[in-house]
Amino acid sequence: MDLPPLNMLMNKTGAMIVRVDFETDYDNALALLGAVSALREHPAKAAEAINHLNHGFDFSVITDPDAFREEYEAKYAAEGDTPYTAGRPQLHDFGKQDLSSLGVPAFEGNTLVFFARDRTLGIAYRAEIPLDTGVATYTPVATLPD
Amino acid sequence: MTTWKDLSKEQRAFLINYIKRDPGIVLLGRAARDVNKRIIDNFGDYEAERAALNAAIDAIPADHVTTRQGPVDDLRAAELRAEDGKFEEASAMLRAATQNAAAALTRIQTEAQQILQNAGVFTVPAGTTIAQSDLDKLAAARLKIQNLLAAATPSQADLVAARDAYADYLEIGVEALRAQGDTTAADALVQQAWATHGTYVRAIGGADYTDLAATPQYAQLQALCTQAQDLEGEYLGRAPQDWEEARNIAAALNAFGAARADHDALLNTATRAHADAQRAVYNASAPAIRTGANVDLTRYPNGPDLAGMTALKGHLQNDVAHIDVTLGGNDVAAITALTAYIPLASQRAIDMAARIKAAELQLLRDQMTNEHGRPAHIEAILTLKETNPDAGQTILDGIAANAAKLNGEMANSQFINDRWVELKHLENRLATENRDAETIYNRAINRRTNEITPRADELKVLKKKFFPSKTQKTRMRQLETELEQLALLDQADVGRFDAKKQEIVVTQQQIAVKEDVIKAAEDQRALFDAITFGPLSPNATPPLPPVKVKEMIELFAKAPDLATRACKLAKNAQDVGALVDAALFLGDQLQSDFAFQPPALPNGTLPNPVALKPEHAKVFAASLLERTAYLGPQFATDAQAAITAGVHVTPNPVVDPAKGDKENIAARATQAAETMMQTGPGGVVTLDVNSPAFADMLTMQKFSVSGTVAPSTMQTKEIEKLQAVLNDPTPDPTTGQTKKQQAEAILNAVAVPTDTRAQELLSKSLGIPAADFTDPAKVAEVEQKMRVAILKAMITPVAQGKVGSCFATAGLLQLKEEDPIRTMGMFAELANDGTFTPNVGAVVPAVVNLPPGDDPLSRSLEYTIGSASARLEESKEKQAAFYTLMAPIPAKGRDPARPAPFDTVAAAITGTTDIAALQDYLLSAFCLNLTFEYDPTMDADLATDGSSDQGIMRIIDATTGQVIDTEAKFVSFLEDMIDACFATGDPDLDVTDQAAIKAACSDPAFLAGMNARHEVVAPWKKSGGGYGAQTAVVLHGAAPTVSATATPMAPAVAGANTTARATDVLKGIANMGAGGNMTMIGTSGIHSFNAVPHTTEMQALMATPPGIDANIAAFAREGQTLKNAPIAPLEKTVHLFEVQMKRVIATMPTPEIADMVRLNMLNVPTYPMTPQQLNDHIETQMANAHDAIAQRDAEAWKERRIAAGKPAPSPARMANEKTRYETKSKQRQERAMGAALVEELGAPTVVIADSNWGDANDHNNFVIAPDPVSGDLKLFSQSVLTGELQMMGDDWLKADWQKEE
To answer: Is residue B1020 predicted with pLDDT exceeding 70?
Structure first.
């Protein structure tokens, strides 16, 4: 099924919305998934839309795990052992994440699973959204043992 | 004869019983009437007789009871007859009785008349004369009889009395007749007696014994006086020829005269008693009078009033002689006159004593002046000697004890400076001697190495040859000769070296002596300052009790460092009395290094006393003193009890002196956590903070030295705070649980974490091996350690580390203060899950990048909150960007209101583009495709609003990762976004408008609108730093939307001075008065921390009347008062000069520059300076040091620059850099001085906030206080433990102050 045009926008009240086919605005995941059933066949777009509705300001969906891993490793290495600095979050503040499980957005049964990058902290989260509830859970990806 | 009608009503009622009834028969009726008539007649007679008898009875006075009884009995008998109707018989009885009564009456009257008649004349034999006195007595007796019998019928009593009086009358007469004698002889008798004693009697009768009124004999003397006067009166008033009277008077005169000796003895005794009483009065002042009379005036050749003293001495000598003579005599009047005289003499003695005192003080003053005492010190000592003699004497004793060491001088700055110069000379000499010794040594070593050893080796080889050649022999001789010469040189150098070593030893000894002298002088000087204007002076607030002053002075002799420290701490001490008592106690303890005698062993052996190492004892005493100043009397009491019990010498088993302070403090926290937990059945943990073990642990942590002295005052306080929380019986209104139950629930809910961050934190906290987290056998052990880690975090003081996490620190500090159980829950989440769940935003993983040694859970929570706040700030910046684009910009200051920037874009549309759709696109593109990043190192170029301009929020194009840092890049980004919007193919966007819309983004009106909001220079140069408001949302916010929560508290005001700003800040904090103990606030771009509006000082400022405005104004005026007042006495100016210079010296970067400043300390102020004058004076002394520092720093900068591969700076650039470093150096010095002046001048301080700064042992507050130099109110940080201040830069007060909750 083809997807209609989806625009990730923010309205004048500051609320995150997904505008479908330049016409209809949705501000919650469950309604959007109900209205655009094609999203169930496009996990990446679904992840982008649902992430936008839940944490549009704070997270971005990781669509290219390898690129993220590469970028993460490079930045992590570049940071060295710089001490924690207030206001300037660093990757190693939170320990080195085990990014081996990172993958592209996918439906696992009735649950949409994707990974998202915390735009401020730079670290990866695993997000799970059961399609029947539309309630997203973001969990930081675990670190590697020392 | 009586008719019925004559009868009374009662009579009729009585008589009716006797009247016969008319039967109705005429004849018989008439007869009845006759009968009745007769009855009535008889009754009438009866009544008349009865009345007559009654009258006769009444005529006899009532007390003639026996006389009256007969007629009365007759009356009753007659009445009985009458009741029987026998009226005639009754009448007869009454008539007879009446006659008897009349006869009795007559008998009474006759007897009375007879007595009167008999007493009328007392008949005496012819030729006999009765003495007049007896005649008088007879007349008196007669008169008495006549009075008794004056009535016609006297009463029985009068009649009996008259009979007795008549008997007396006769007795008098008979006696008179018996006693009559020779009146002539009687008269001669009395005349003879008067001739013998009359003069004496008259003298006694005229004597005045008033002076002796206070003596025990006075009453007797006065009685004698009266007796004599009576005797004379009787003598003079006696009747002629009255034989009896004459005889009596003569006898009385003779008796009185015969007792003359007794009277004289009595008078003498009274006179002695009088004199003794005066002597007793005299004795009270006699020593003073005699002292004044005997004073040796040659002792005071330069006394202030020698002439007056000489005259007074003469007076007093006269006084002594006069009083002694008078008291030894019998002149009662003279003795009495001493009553007035002795006080006058006493007053003269007092005057003399005052003059002696003044002369003695002058003597002492002269002596101390000769010993180079400073005038203010001398006067303070003299005042002390006068008002608190014991203390004054102790000072003088101390001066005497130090006289030898101080070369007979009193300590003063000149003396100390001179000794310091000498010390420096000695140190220089020692350095030279060391160098010389080194030179000699090196020379000798070189000679031995390079000349002797090779020759000796060569000679040794040659000597081994059996057949040396001639050349070799020649060489051997040459070598031997050279070696001999070299040995001589070596020997000489050894001698020189030994001599130099001796010189060095001597110089070292001299240095030690000099240092000892300087120390003694500095200690004495500190004591002098303390009694002159410090806490031991009479002007101290509050003044110490005299006995404490004396004891503190003694402490200066015993433990001068401790005494000086106590004086320093006094200003900020919670209880000065407790501080002084503690100092005295610790001073005693220091004498024996806190020696403790353990109790005897069971076998009776007394173990050896245990003491601290001397270096530990000093540090321990100082620490206890500081903690007493901070914590007050209870701590002092606990300390004494603990030391008495030997806790201080009992090692705390968890403390390892080989480890660092942080490790030991962590060990103590672990110990406290473990002690408060008890594990019950099923592994359920309960908390007990009231057990003896817990109390012992606290005592141990406070007072055990344990091989190291690293107090953890603030951590101990946290333990006690947690103790109070767990003892709070108030149930939670929602759950009904107490805090203890809630805490236990949190602890019992822990579960071994699978999260690696949680594991890392726990491993760092308690050293849990990684393998234990997955070992099923270790579950209980790990969980117990998790509980310990959580409790350990709870008792770790929240204080900002070395990173700029102030906003998070402040938030955590406030949360822990206001809601400790929730904080505990957060620690538990970190331990269980390795995460922190903010109130707003997604869960944040625990920060594990922590400074070594800090408590992992506590610091991690602080940093993780900081990370959550940073993320929220990022969101807030996007929100702000949204407002910047869309909302009209209100007028602010001189800037006019502006339309929203988007209006400029909308105005450019000429095609069919839907404006609302375009707005959504632009808004989304602008907000969602920009990211913000804080760079604390960049300069925002903000200059005028007072806020910090250090640190900006950089914006980054999220689609390209490029930093937008120019207007061109910003416009380019917007154009790209517009292109992207149109690329969506949305039919609501008309491509014919695309170019115009992009062009609008370059419109100056659009860009000006973008720049106008939030006082930014440009969107890509937005100031940042400090996420206090975001932290408040993270911890307390409820709204899911992102919004700034900071509200203005004291907004920056351009051009306002610090007093005006401090006033705004104080009022802003006062307005929070109704809130909790802490309120998060921030100074824009500088710092986030917590206001404490409930401090005593803040409450005082809020007092109404007069109200906060007036109170703050009065507070601010204190600064002007301090600014304008010279610091008197001069010694106080000198003291402040030296205190400040020493502070500055301590900050000097090299010993050479420090010595440069120290040398300038010789230029002590010569007059009492105002703070500004003192400041200027110090600036002058610092000039060469600032120059040296600036030169050094500029050179270092130059070297760094060259090392970085940059070209060497030009001389002009170097000059600029040097000027910059010089300015910085001056600023550092001025801040240090400003703080010292506030401390030393006792300027009032108002604690306004908790700074977040501190460690396990100390913490800092922010206070506002008047700066004595400028007179303005300034902001300072202040140690809660020591009270020491640090002046903050003016930028702090001038920044925007915001409430961040």
So the answer is: no
d(CA B1163, CA A54): 72
* Residues of chain B found within 8 Å of residue A58, distances taken between Cβ atoms: 841-842, 871, 874-875
Residue A34 has which token pair? 């109900």
Mean pLDDT of B841-855: 92
Whole-model pTM?
Answer: 0.72
Question: Cβ-count burial of B273 within 10 angstroms (0-12 exposed, 13-18 middle, 19+ buried)?
Answer: middle
Answer whether A142 touches B (CB < 8 Å).
yes
Asked if B845 lies within 8 A of A94 by C-beta distance, the reply is yes
pLDDT confidence bin for B24, thresholds 50/70/90: very low
CB pairs under 8 A between A and B: 152
| Residue B412 DSSP symbol | -
Q: Looking at this predicted complex, what is its ipTM?
A: 0.93
Residue A42 has pLDDT above 70, yes or no: yes
Q: What is the pLDDT of residue B948?
A: 36
Q: For residue B210, which amino acid is it?
A: T
Alpha-carbon B1110 to chain mean position:
26
Give the distance from CA B192 to its chain's centroid. Answer: 89
Q: Which carries the bigger pLDDT value, residue B1264 or residue B125?
A: B1264
Instruction: Write down the pLDDT at residue B29.
Output: 54
Contact B1028, B1082 (CB under 8 A): yes
What is residue B1264's DSSP assignment?
E
Give the Cα separation of B30 and B48 in Å (integer). 27
Q: Which helix (H) or strand (E) holds B258?
A: helix B243-258
Q: What pLDDT score does B1012 carry?
A: 64
- Judging by beta carbons within 10 Å of its beta carbon (0-12, 13-18, 19+), is residue B1037 exposed, middle or buried? buried
Residues on chain A touching B844 (C-beta within 8 angstroms): 121, 140
Structure-block tokens of residue B309:
């003293």
DSSP state of B453: H
CA B375 – CA B381 distance, rounded (Å):
10
φ, ψ at B283 (rounded to 5°) = -55, -30
Predicted local distance difference test score (pLDDT) of residue B936: 55
pLDDT at residue B934 in the model = 67
CB B787 within 8 A of CB B865: no
Q: Give the whole-angstrom CA distance, residue B374 versus residue B384.
A: 15
CA distance B822 to B1177: 55
Residue-wise pLDDT for B864-877, tens only, equals 998 898 888 777 77
Q: Residues 179-238, chain B: which have Cβ within 8 Å of A?
A: none
Residue A140 sits at the chain B interface (C-beta within 8 Å):
yes
- Candidate from A4-18, A60-74, B1116-1130, B1153-1167 with smallest mean pLDDT: A4-18
- Biggest CA–CA distance in chain B, Å, is 226
Rounded to an integer, what distance in angstroms lies between the CA atom of residue B833 and that of residue B1163? 66
Residues 6+ apart with CB under 8 A from B933: A88, B953, B954, B955, B956
Q: Does B1237 touch chain A (CB under 8 A)?
A: no
Our CA angle for B1174, B1180, B1183, nearest 5°, is 140
Is residue B301 reached through a cis peptide bond, with omega within 30 degrees of 0 on the bond before it? no
Terminal CA-CA length for chain B: 130
Structure token pair of residue B233: 């009166």
Separation CA B843–CA A136 (nearest Å): 12
Instruction: Assess contact for B1018 and B955: CB atoms under 8 A.
Output: no
What is the separation, in whole angstroms, between the first and last Cα of chain A?
46
Residue of chain A whose alpha carbon sits nearest to that of B989: A22
Instruction: Check if A128 contacts B (Cβ < 8 Å).
Output: no
Is the pLDDT at B1270 greater than 60, yes or no?
A: yes
pLDDT score recorded for residue B1234 = 79
| Tokens describing residue B146 | 């006549």
- Contact between B845 and A95 using a beta-carbon 8 Å cutoff: yes
